[in-house]
Amino acid sequence: MPNASVPTITLRNGLELPAIGMGTWPMDNAQTASAVATAVDVGYRLFDTAENYENETGVGEGLRRIGIARSDVVITTKFNKRWHSREGVREAFSASAAKLGTEYIDLLLVHWPNPDQDRFVEAVQGIADLLAEGLVRGIGVSNFKPAHLERLADAGLIPDLNQIQVDPRHIREASRQANTRLGIVTESWSPLGRDGGLLQDPVVTALAEKYGRTPGQIVLRWHVQQGLVPIPKASSRAHLEENLAVFDFSLEAGEVAGLSALDTGDAGILDSDSFGH
């Protein structure tokens, strides 16, 4: 069953996306299967994986192990640059669907735009083909900059979701505004930061003390309160439960702004004009 305690956000194509999900990188298949089964039991309904993580099989195994109906979960996966063509995307879909053990994928994403290869428009068209056939339920991209999105829009292709690196030290204002302008939901990868330093920041720890929450819960609340969809990686039941328990309190507007003021610009952001796989 859908988890009534977790709000959902409706995407352009009508898919109801849970407001928080579970990331799986860098777990292997065995770790992923165990964590996903636990996460379903805890209340997660959104799961993120990728061809490049090499754990899609584990996501499918975890869902089968716990016995939840396929229609009650949202599965997101991503494919690499070698598949950036309309027929290539169909191959990527087939491979991922087989590993996941599913007939359809809720959100299929172009993992990186790889503009030097310059085939990401074809890749998104390939996902749109699958959407028209009912094999995917939404069109996704990951790490796309505003200029990449403009190329897609010019081709009449607007994704439902753009998964980018976002946290209070990397608020990605320009990218988020571009997403919003086009009606694209922003999903946050590495939402708690990549080095652990964010959770020790005095601004974060002071709010944690004020609200009787963990620093991680404060940061995740910053995401969901702004309509961002964070997908933190977790494996233990305690950590999974902690990350999900962010819908029963609110930060004040000034506190959200104070967290956003921790922004360091593009420092620590992988440049998707030059990096990708």
UniProtKB/TrEMBL annotation:
It holds the Pfam family Aldo_ket_red. Keywords: NADP, Oxidoreductase. This is Aldo/keto reductase. Belongs to the aldo/keto reductase family. Signal peptide: none annotated. PANTHER family: 2,5-DIKETO-D-GLUCONIC ACID REDUCTASE, NADP-DEPENDENT OXIDOREDUCTASE DOMAIN-CONTAINING PROTEIN. It comes from Arthrobacter pullicola. InterPro entries: AKR (IPR020471), Aldo/ket_reductase_CS (IPR018170), NAD(P)_OxRdtase_dom_sf (IPR036812), NADP_OxRdtase_dom (IPR023210). Residues 20-262 form the NADP-dependent oxidoreductase domain. The lineage of its organism: Bacteria, Bacillati, Actinomycetota, Actinomycetes, Micrococcales. It comes from the Bacteria.
